[in-house]
Amino acid sequence: MKHTEMVASILLRGVLQPILVRPKGSNFEIVLGERRWRGALEAYGPDGQMPVTIREMTDQEALEAAIDENEIRDDTSETEQADAAVRVLAAYHGDRAEAARRLGWSQAKFARRLALADLSDPVKLALDERRIKIGHAELLAAVPQDKQDKALETILTADLDVSKTRDLLMRVTQNLASACFDKTECTTCPFNSATQRVLFETHVDDGHCTNPGCFQLKTEAVETIRFEEEERAAKAARPVAPAAVDVSGDDEQNGLVDETSLDQAGDVDDIASPDDEGTGSSASAPSIAAIAVPRQASAHKPAVTAESIARRTADLREATWRTALARALASNAGHAHTAILVAAMSGTLSQIKADTLTSRAGLLVGAAFPDLDYGAKIAAIRGLPDRQAQIVLSVIGAAYAKDVLTFDHVADLARAFQVDLRDSWKVDQGFLDRYTKEELKFIARECGLVDHIGQKAFAKRLAGKKSDLITNMLNAIGFDWSGRLPSAMTLDGTYGPPPTHVAPQAQPPIADLAA
Fold this sequence. Notes:
mainly alpha, 5 strands, 4% strand, disordered C terminus
């Protein structure tokens, strides 16, 4: 029976069959007859009266009574079935197969009805009253709740059929193929049109995001990170004024010596010999620094170690790990929730800069949010759909990774969540420009480049200009820097070799997956 027909019947005849309720704290909970209660509420208002049967019932007894009523009735609406799916799923602790079995539904029907539970109340009512079709509702189920009411208004005002509604939604979706962010999380997102295609006959084209707010947020996060990386690279590439030649002692502080550092196993003849990749004219004689500083001074030069290199790149290392952790928390609400709780309990949550979050509040919660009074902001946050609330949590976690003062906290979180910098960072010119030639040699050795091209060939390149050495290191034939993490960039000071990728296992037949 449609809702409007039920209201008319109640106005004419009253409520003929009592609803069943059970005591729940200081109130009562409806077990059977919620539709009758809603109809009576509309017919008589909040002060109206209706027959009620009160019975003490356990949660399991109440659940089974509600299920039995729904199984007996053949006029159960799709929205009632959606609500039943939610209740039964909760009762069976998230076991979808058991919940579907208990309702006597196929798992496909259970999944479709569960998806309809995400409809806003006005959309559910419109479906119950058949002002929209099930196809409209299936399309709107793929839209965030805070956008559904506006879409419903458009559908009803313009009298859009299902096909035109689909075309309208297609115009406001985002093509995932053009996304600049990591789409791993999107594969299981309910706002991915591919998910809707599996559930519903009516859906938008594959590969589209129906949550523009989330899409924009992820895009902005990537663009912000890219901007920061470009700024960092530009800063690293700025030339540093060479230090004055000091002929009295420490050649480690002499910028000119760095340009002509010797291989530890080499000699002066290596410098005087032509570079096999150049004309030899610029290397035909020792440099001014080599003449001014006696060879024996090198015996007193401090040894190059992972620790000494790490000290030279501490700022880049910290900024890069903060960015990697922020990405990890932004893509995993569970990890972000843990990070926020730890931050709050350790007294460091307040280190998040205020404008880091307030500047994005309009995007995260709603355009009107920044202008609301505090009480209205509480209501807006409480009214957030679960999915949107998770996004907000993720952004708070990412903000903490960026702003927390102590880098040790960043490192501990990165270890706890197994953040792997090798997935997102690569040796480049901006990184190598930071180091002296002896330090470049250390990096080339630990990353496997020296073994790749041979000791002698690398010694010849080391004898040339630093800029040429870096170019040769980055463009060595057959050598891939991807996944190689120098010890100076790791959290424990140990070189990180390229990760070993396990060959994917053969997928089981579709029939097995269905089973």
